[in-house]
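Q: I'm writing up a methods section and want to include an example of the input and output format. Could you take the sequence below and give the corresponding predicted structure tokens, formatted cleanly so I can copy it straight into the document?
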Amino acid sequence: MTHVVTEACIRCKYTDCVDVCPVDCFREGPNFLVIDPDECIDCAVCIPECPVNAILPEEDVPGDQQKFIAINVELSKNWPSITKRKAALPDADDWKDRTDKLGELIR
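A: Here is the clean output for your methods example:
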């Protein structure tokens, strides 16, 4: 099993999770992070670090977020690795509690 970054990360991109990842499995896009399932070792240290609760074990991803399993796989193949924390997006606090953000995802 792997961990999955879900919709809550879109337009926020807090990177607290990146600092604790022992295998550098996070990949960075313009307004979203994903986890490379081929690199993730299922250690779960990233989960409590996410301020918007966007990271879940694959088996716990709710039905309405299942599409993010495939999105993480797809985008992790093309996006660069991120290994150090960066500032969140400038308007992250405005977006952190919003839902239905898939249309905002920049691939």
